[in-house]
Write a structure and sequence with these properties.
single chain; alpha/beta; Cobalt-precorrin-4 Transmethylase, domain 1; Methyltransferase, Cobalt-precorrin-4 Transmethylase, Domain 2; five-stranded parallel β-sheet; five-stranded mixed β-sheet; 6 helices; 28% helix; 21% strand; cobalamin biosynthesis; transferase; Cobalt-factor II C(20)-methyltransferase; methyltransferase; plasmid
């Protein structure tokens, strides 16, 4: 039998892919690592088929290893007799808790078949939510910015885990960037907020992203207008 890692998207139940929805409806058990992913999954499966796994909020490596081994053992046991799914917000292979489960299954239960069903990640959905166009030829870097970090270098960056927006904004503006923030984008839980003012999102929230672009960055974007041609198409 197969364990499916299913990406639920950024939090809106309607943004689950067609294949993801089909998998959720077909498996016997849908395991969830937390409250938010559970809430999204419940839009597609009854609560009787949800299996909750305990992942403690700790940095203690021994406790984390124990929790992941126990979770993998439960999932592997269920997978002996039926297909199961493990759901996660975003995409299972992009900064996801599914990676811990996959590595633990590979190490202790190599007989388990695994299949990943991609999902819309917040790092890609941000472009629509923030009204930012990432045009052809654009270089874009993905960086973590927890605890006030303000990484610099690339002309354009997506920053995730922005937990101290004020400090991150200060560091980036001092380095010559324009910054726009998005919090809980496309999420049904909590308030979605898009702003250029870090004080509006001063309260720490793990589900905050930012887009940083170097000030004065020139663009060469193709349009429907051409030099020397009028609106009727004549020179």
């Amino acid at each position: 039998m197969t364990v499916y890692g299913v990406g639920l998207g950024p939090g809106d139940a309607d943004l689950v892919t067609v294949k993801g929805k089909q998998i959720l409806e077909s498996v016997d058990v849908v395991y969830s690592p937390g409250r938010l992913s559970r809430t999204v999954a419940l839009n597609h499966v009854p609560e009787s088929r949800i299996g909750d796994l305990d992942f403690p909020m700790t940095r203690d490596p021994d406790e984390l290893r124990r929790a992941w081994k126990e979770a993998a053992a439960e999932v592997a046991e269920q997978a002996k007799s039926s297909d199961v799914a493990f759901v996660t917000l975003g995409d299972p292979n992009v900064y996801s808790t599914f990676g811990h489960l996959r590595r633990t299954l590979d190490a202790f239960h190599p007989e388990v078949e695994l299949e990943v069903v991609p999902g819309v990640s917040a790092m890609t959905a941000f472009a629509t939510a923030l009204g930012v166009e990432i045009e052809s030829g654009t270089g874009l870097s993905l960086r973590e910015a927890a605890n006030g970090a303000a990484p610099t270098g690339p002309d354009r960056m997506i920053l995730f885990k922005v937990t101290d927006a004020v400090a991150t904004h200060e560091g980036l503006t001092d380095a010559g960037y324009d910054v726009k923030f998005g919090r809980r984008l496309f999420m049904e839980q909590g308030e979605t907020l898009v702003t250029s003012d870090p004080k509006e999102i001063e309260e720490r929230d793990y589900y905050t992203l930012a887009y940083a672009e170097r000030e004065g960055l020139e663009r060469d974007v193709a349009t429907a207008e051409f030099d020397g041609v009028d609106s009727e198409g004549s020179a």
